[in-house]
Design a protein that fits this description.
single chain, 125 residues, mainly alpha, 2 strands, 3% strand, CN_hydtase_beta-like_N, Nitrile hydratase accessory protein
């Protein structure tokens, strides 16, 4: 499936005339990770679309107003669950990485890009 076909398969994806629109850098990164894993054969696009649909429907059932502002949160949740289900990373690895990013976000000065290296417990620091 080509990238235009992949994008066409996700009609709810926030976009403008140029293509996908991202409000935050992490949204673009989550998008890129899903596309890269698909291109590497980790999952089919049908599997991906189904996983994303499950996340969106669950969020709507819990009261998500579905204004588009939470779309990439659902994208990331679907990606994490699919990665775990396919044993591409364990739940513990995913949680460790979430914790590292959370610490980095809390220790990064306001207005600066959040980088994993900003986590004081990260080995590269």
């Amino acid at each position: 499936m080509s990238r235009p076909e992949l994008l066409a398969a996700l009609p709810e994806l926030p976009r403008d005339a140029e293509g996908p629109v991202f409000r935050e850098p992490w949204e673009a990164q989550a998008f890129a990770m899903a596309v890269a894993l698909h291109e590497r054969g980790a999952f089919t696009w049908t599997e991906w679309a189904a996983a994303l649909a499950v996340e969106i429907k669950a969020a709507q059932a819990e009261g998500d107003p579905d204004t588009g502002e939470t779309y990439y949160r659902h994208w990331l949740a679907a990606l994490e669950k699919l990665v775990a289900a396919k044993a591409l990373a364990s739940d513990a690895e995913l949680q460790r990485r979430r914790d590292q990013w959370d610490r980095a976000a809390r220790t990064t000065p306001h207005g600066q890009p959040i980088e994993l290296g900003n986590d004081p417990s990260h080995p590269g620091r």
